[in-house]
Amino acid sequence: MIVLKSPQEIERMKVSSQIVAQILDTVRQNVKPGVTTLQLDEVAESEALRLGAKAAFKGYSGYKHALCTSVNSQVIHGIPSRLKLVEGDILSVDFGILCDGFYGDAAVTIPVGSVSVSATRLLAATRESLYSAIEFARPGNRLSDISHAVQKYVESRGYSVVRDYVGHGIGRNLHESPQIPNYGLPGKGVRLKVGMVLAIEPMINEKGAAVMTLEDGWTTVTCDGGLSAHFEHTVAVTENGPIILTQL
Ligand code: MF3
Ligand code: CO
Question: What pairs with residue 109 in β-bridges?
Answer without folding.
Answer: 92
